[in-house]
């Protein structure tokens, strides 16, 4: 029986190679014998470790993405990108009365942003330039609401001519907002119950159960 596998020609890390069609960039590297360990994380598009830069066939524009998600296509020219060095401020937010007021002290470079838009290379389709504009203007809620999908890959920082690290600025804002918001009363109640060992007897009983007893308990809780 004839092998029906289709092959394509791509350029990986500066070398033209023949690979089976349908592989991601990471899978293609492994398929061709590259011992890729650095820059490999979850392989699910969540950790942001495997950033790549690529040019598609017939194009001159360099694009960016994740190696575990980008499927190799005929004529693709792609390289793995190293972890980009970005400055992450060191701070003790629990010691700050109003951490949002101290954003400029920890990330003064934010206010040198000239809205060039070079940071809009996010593999999660976040409008990074827009987030930075909200941050500069003090609209922190708007900034935080637009970065919930950030995977901290750092591609935005690698493109910024002002040496701003948008991923760290956004993380600071999210942490500061959480610190300044009123503590949810239902969460406070539950934490107090945990600290007072209110459920210790019940957990001890569950921990002593065998597999069959646990299955029966779960079935009863789910109403099965």
From TrEMBL:
Molecular function via GO? 2 iron, 2 sulfur cluster binding; metal ion binding
List UniProt keywords, sorted A-Z.
Iron, Iron-sulfur, Metal-binding
**What Gene3D superfamilies does this protein's entry cite?**
3.30.70.20
- Domain (2Fe-2S ferredoxin-type) spans 6-84
Domain 4Fe-4S ferredoxin-type as annotated: residue spans:
140-171
Q: Which residues cross the membrane?
A: none
Q: What is this protein called?
A: Ferredoxin
Q: What is the lineage of its organism?
A: Bacteria, Pseudomonadati, Thermodesulfobacteriota, Desulfuromonadia, Geobacterales
């Amino acid at each position: 029986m004839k092998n029906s596998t289709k092959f394509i020609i791509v350029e990986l890390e500066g070398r033209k190679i023949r690979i089976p069609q349908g592989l991601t960039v990471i899978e293609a590297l492994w398929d061709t014998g590259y011992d890729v360990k650095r820059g490999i994380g979850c392989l699910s598009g969540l950790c942001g470790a495997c950033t790549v830069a690529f040019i598609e066939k017939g194009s001159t524009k360099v694009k960016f993405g994740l190696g575990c998600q980008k499927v190799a296509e005929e004529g693709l020219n792609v390289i793995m990108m190293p972890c980009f060095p970005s400055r992450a401020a060191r701070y003790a937010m629990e010691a700050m009365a109003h951490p949002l007021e101290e954003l400029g002290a920890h990330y003064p470079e934010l206010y040198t942003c000239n809205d060039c838009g070079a940071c809009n290379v996010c593999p999660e389709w976040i409008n990074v330039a827009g987030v930075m504009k909200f941050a500069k203007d003090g609209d922190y809620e708007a900034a935080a609401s637009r970065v919930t999908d950030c995977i901290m890959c750092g591609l935005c920082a690698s493109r910024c001519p002002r040496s701003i690290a948008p991923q760290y600025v956004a993380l600071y804002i999210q942490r500061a907002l959480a610190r300044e918001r009123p503590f949810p009363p239902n969460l406070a109640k539950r934490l107090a119950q945990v600290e007072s060992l209110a459920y210790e007897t019940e957990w001890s009983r569950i921990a002593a159960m065998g597999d069959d007893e646990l299955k029966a308990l779960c079935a009863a809780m789910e109403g099965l």
